[in-house]
Amino acid sequence: MSVADTSPATGEQAGGSQQLSRLCHDLRQYVAAGLVLSEPPPDDNDTGLGRLSLIHQQLAAIAELLDVEQEPAPRIGGVNLTQLAGECAELVRVTYRAPVIFERAARVVVFGEKALLRRAIGNLLDNACRAAGGSGQVQLRVDASDSEAYVEVSDDGPGFGAVTSRTGHGLSVVAAAARACDGRLEIISAPATGTTVRLCFGTGHRAMRSA
Fold first, then answer.
1. Domain with 139 in it: what CATH number?
2. At CA 162, angle to CA 158 and CA 165, rounded to 5?
3. Which among 54, 96, 118, 175 could disulfide-bond with 129, CB atoms 3.0 to 4.6 Å apart, if both were Cys?
4. How far apart are CA 178 and CA 200, in angstroms?
5. pTM assigned to the model
6. What pLDDT band is residue 32 in, cutting at 50, 70 and 90?
7. 81: exposed, middle or buried (C-beta count within 10 Å: 0-12, 13-18, 19+)?
8. Do 167 and 25 touch, CB atoms closer than 8 A?
9. Residues ≥6 apart with Cβ < 8 Å to 135
10. Are 172 and 185 in contact (CB under 8 A)?
């Protein structure tokens, strides 16, 4: 009698399924924003140039995301964390009612994989906006000190774990990005007081802050 099949292919198939599920989870955000932006503008005075710019930004992010999936080796380089966070904020503002307040800092550059960091920040904002709902708000902050750089997302929702997750992949994507970029993830939360999640990068990333 043969034993159950525990060949490596089974593990590879499971890993491939998880990877595809995470990819679909992230693409959903861009597709949702694209659908909203493709609708006729509510203001007759709107020339549509701003909407076209956002659509272009989302399509470029999708292309970037698919490139990374085809070439799994990380492409580490300098990433303008401040600019990237601003782009992610523009995306979630299209699809969520909760206001996203971006405390703009000086230009902060870290060494990492741009596509992974975009996915991480996007997922943090997505989670925070769902937690905040229609009556709350989300704070986005990027800053750096002599020892580290970080991007921080806070919401005033019911607290970590109190909002039903759509797929369960959001924080796993953030954690994977932190590992790939030699960063770390910090979560501070309490019932009824909201959640703050910080993605930190140490001095090994040669974080740079400039005006």
1. 3.30.565.10
2. 125
3. 96
4. 8
5. 0.68
6. low
7. buried
8. yes
9. none
10. no
